[in-house]
Write a structure and sequence with these properties.
heterodimer; A: about 325 residues; mainly alpha; two-stranded antiparallel sheet; B: about 500 residues; alpha/beta; Rossmann fold; 2 domains; 6-stranded mixed β-sheet; 17 helices; about 25% strand; globular
């Protein structure tokens, strides 16, 4: 019991999410056990969350600096469109892509992410544009660019081997997309907890001014952070491509909001300086459980999902506000 | 003694298990300037809050103007003539001076509409009382700290105050502004208003007050007339410790300078500053608030790169255009404002200590060496006797003196050859101040070159071997601290 208590006090955000998760799972067990607790359903859920989960992982880093990345979806779509054009250019619309070429596609994604992220970083650290405006502007810019390139329509004819690989399940039970997600999560965890970057990031997030006085290379830090975020978003884009089997300038537009919801729900303070990977990962899984659970109820329309997301986000912010306030000292 | 205006006896109060005030008494006679002194956390502010009705005492009696006070609210206190001017002045920054001054009486009149003519009249009357020259239509947010304070004082005077309590009023003021404030205080005294002046600065206590009371740890340790007080007694009452004041004499000084400036200039701030520092020396730089002393410090550390001139380390010119280059040249900088420049207040003590040396705490494979990090943190916590149960607690949990030790530790962890300190003991209690001075002297004896930039003259005279005076961006005087008198320095600064 003591161990549970000390775990709770050390991991408040994660614990809160785990408690909600257990409560929800019990509720599903009592009401929709037959439909929810099936292997197929879990497989579906696991295949879906990496898309926006990856965006949330990168966006988390930006929020820990006290900033925000609103360009994740634009970056993801940019990546899918570039990838599809590259595939068509090399192999032809009806050609076959060898599986090994996926590595090249990933490199393209990383490169696209680096370019977009560096642009964000440039606007934010060199020109001192507030992150919310810089990334919003960049998102509009690259979305617009994608619309121009594609003429606004979906590109669905391209070698589909890439989609086949990433929408498949390893050994029939582990979606490849989850493996990609886990790999990225491990890299981010390493950056945060096992490299000096994590300490610098958190300190920068709690005061950029003091960071400057302490000799931290703040510009480099901001560049690195926004580039990492965009690379994560790009890889998220590849996951989207494998799901939809087509690329378009405006796919997944609600993922921006959703990824921010996940980050805040995961205990990352929008003021910066605070946050842990475990919280965000727990939030990602919890939200998928809730979304999928709601879909099991025939009487609740899927249209409600957005409404529920909004409510959960506001609730998380309210809880954040109340738990951040210092406890009042009682006067005897 | 004549009749008391305020007579507080045997006041006790506790918050939870903490006895903030154990048994303190305070007497103030009409028209006197009474100084209440004590280190942070000694209960000064708590007593004010009891007198002004914010907190309710657990025991003791308070008599004001021959009336016994039982349970009072802040409004009662104001009606009886007790006014408190807090450090933040409680003004509305988004309103004009006139609005701030007239707001209370306009609200009290109960009318739903505002008569702007009336507002102006009230405000004009209010500022006349202290002969203040100020634009009534200026927004308060655009005023200087001193001007805000004047507005707060004139507001306090509108309510027929008999006692005005000022909570550390000089903290953010320049020397000139302090003088102006003291003039007003003396004028108020002439009008028969008693002033309770809260301060922990020795020279202010001597300069302004008739009588003093000193608290330590929630107890009254001394009270009496200021004439009987001296430097040594004051420090002893404040801290309960005795310190030997020993002027610093460098022992091991390097033959050649380790750090030099040659005609360093920063446009609009300072011009043609040349100086040299040997290892083992402590060099003082003093000057008024806007003399360019802070800009000079920022330039030496690369935060405001100089526009011309040279910085020389061990005889070789070095380029310092950002703090990283300064650190690479083994220069450390303890900034002026600990809270906004020196410390990540919300982050752990440990992170604060290691942040500037963090890149040297990597393993060969680039990984963050967490074991080495913890060892470093432990080492500095022990070395500087930082009082904390757990170095992973946030820096906010520490007192000013301990916080300043963190900032020192952070720079010493980088193994600097030159350490520049800007106001090293601002807002630090007297006990820690002496400890920090002792640390700096010890470091210099070990060969570190130290530059102390400060307007605390006793501090620079006692700790530095040489002293430069900067005025309007140029060095105007250089003294040997063994021979200099405080007045000479003041004359050079002004």
């Amino acid at each position: 019991m003591d161990r549970v208590k000390s775990f709770y006090s050390k991991n408040r955000e994660v614990s809160r999410l785990i408690i909600i998760m257990i409560a929800w799972l019990v509720f599903m067990l009592l009401t929709q056990a037959g439909k929810f607790f099936t292997g197929a359903n879990f497989l579906t859920m696991a295949g879906q969350f990496p898309e926006y989960g990856l965006m949330a992982l990168g966006g988390m880093l930006c929020m820990m600096t006290g900033g925000i990345d609103l360009s994740v979806v634009g970056t993801a779509n940019m990546t899918t469109i570039i990838s599809v054009y590259v595939m068509n250019w090399i192999f032809g619309v009806d050609g076959t892509m060898p599986a090994g070429f996926s590595v090249v596609i990933f490199l393209i994604a990383v490169l696209t992410g680096c370019v977009v992220g560096a642009f964000n970083g440039f606007l934010i650290s060199e020109l001192k544009v507030p992150p919310i405006l810089a990334t919003l502007g960049v998102n509009q810019l690259i979305t617009g660019l994608c619309i121009v390139i594609t003429g606004g329509s979906a590109v669905s004819s391209f070698p589909k081997q890439f989609c086949d690989i990433f929408s498949s399940n390893l050994f029939g039970v582990i979606p490849v997309r989850v493996i990609v997600f886990i790999l990225v999560a491990v890299i981010i965890w390493f950056m945060l907890e096992r490299s000096t970057y994590g300490t610098k990031l958190r300190l920068y997030g709690s005061s950029a001014h003091v960071a400057e006085f302490s000799g931290i290379n703040t510009k480099k830090l901001v560049f690195k952070t926004y580039m990492t975020s965009s690379v994560c978003a790009s890889i998220g884009g590849l996951m989207m491509l494998s799901t939809y089997a087509s690329a378009r300038a405006d796919y997944g537009s609600n993922y921006t909001m959703q990824s921010i919801l996940l980050i805040v729900l995961g205990g990352v303070s929008p003021n910066g300086g605070k946050g842990r990977l475990s919280g965000v990962v727990a939030a990602i899984i919890l939200l998928k459980f809730i979304e999928s659970g709601i879909n099991r109820f025939r009487s609740v329309s899927t249209y409600y999902v957005t409404l529920i997301w909004g409510a959960v986000l506001i609730l998380a912010l309210v809880i954040d506000y109340f738990s951040a306030r210092p406890k009042k000292v009682k006067v005897k | 003694m004549s009749e008391c205006l305020l007579k507080a006896e045997h006041i006790q109060i506790s918050f939870g298990n903490v006895h903030a005030l154990k048994d303190v008494s305070l007497e103030i006679v009409p028209g006197e300037i009474h100084c209440l002194a004590g280190e942070n956390g000694c209960g000064k502010s708590t007593l004010i809050k009891i007198i002004s009705g914010v907190h309710q005492r657990n025991g003791g009696t308070i008599e004001f103007d021959r009336k016994k006070l039982e349970k009072i609210t802040p409004i009662d206190a104001i009606n009886m003539g007790i006014q408190v001017i807090y450090q933040d002045f409680s003004l509305f920054p988004n309103l004009t001076v006139a609005e701030n001054l007239a707001l209370n009486s306009e609200l009290a009149s109960g009318k739903k509409t505002i008569s702007w003519k009336n507002v102006r009249k009230i405000a004009e009357e209010a500022i006349k009382k202290i002969n203040m020259d100020i634009d009534l239509d200026e927004k308060v947010s655009r005023l200087s700290v001193a001007q805000k304070q004047m507005v707060a004082i004139s507001r306090a005077l509108m309510f027929n105050a008999k006692l005005i309590i000022m909570d550390e009023p000089t903290t953010a003021l320049t020397k000139k502004e302090v003088d102006a404030l003291f003039k007003i205080i003396l004028k108020l005294k002439e009008q028969g208003i008693a002033i309770l002046f809260i301060s922990h600065k020795l020279n202010e206590v001597f300069e302004i007050s008739d009588r003093f009371t000193i608290f330590r740890n929630g107890e009254m340790v001394a009270t009496g007339s200021t004439g009987e007080l001296d430097d040594k007694k004051f420090t002893y009452y404040m801290t309960g410790r005795e310190f030997a004041d020993k002027t610093f004499i460098p022992e091991k000084v390097t033959d050649t300078p380790i750090f030099e400036l040659r005609n360093l200039s920063l446009e609009g701030s300072f011009e043609n500053i040349s100086l040299s520092l040997r290892g083992g020396e402590i060099l003082g730089i003093t000057g008024l608030l806007d003399s360019g002393r802070t800009e000079l410090a920022l330039s030496m550390f690369g935060l405001k790169p100089a526009t011309s001139g040279e910085i020389i380390r061990n005889g070789k010119p070095v380029k310092i255009t950002n703090p990283r280059e300064a650190i690479a040249s083994k220069i450390g900088y303890v900034p002026e404002d600990r809270l906004s420049e020196g410390l990540f207040l919300q982050r752990s003590i440990g992170d604060n200590i290691i942040i500037s040396e963090i890149d040297s705490l990597k393993k060969k494979n680039g990984q963050f060496d967490l074991k080495k990090r913890d060892e470093e943190v432990d080492r500095w916590v022990k070395e500087f006797e930082i009082k904390t149960k757990n170095p992973e607690n946030p820096a906010t949990t520490l007192s000013g003196g301990n916080q300043q030790r963190i900032v020192l530790a952070k720079w010493l962890a980088c193994n600097p050859d030159v350490l520049i300190l800007n106001g090293p003991t601002v807002g630090v209690d007297i006990g820690s101040k002496h400890d920090i001075h002792a640390i700096l002297q010890r470091l210099a004896q070990k060969g570190l070159g130290v530059i102390i930039i400060s307007d605390d003259l006793p501090e620079v005279i006692q700790n530095c071997s040489r002293l430069l005076v900067i005025k309007e961006g140029s060095i105007v005087a250089e003294y040997d601290t063994q021979q200099v008198k405080e007045q000479m320095i003041i004359d050079a600064m002004m």
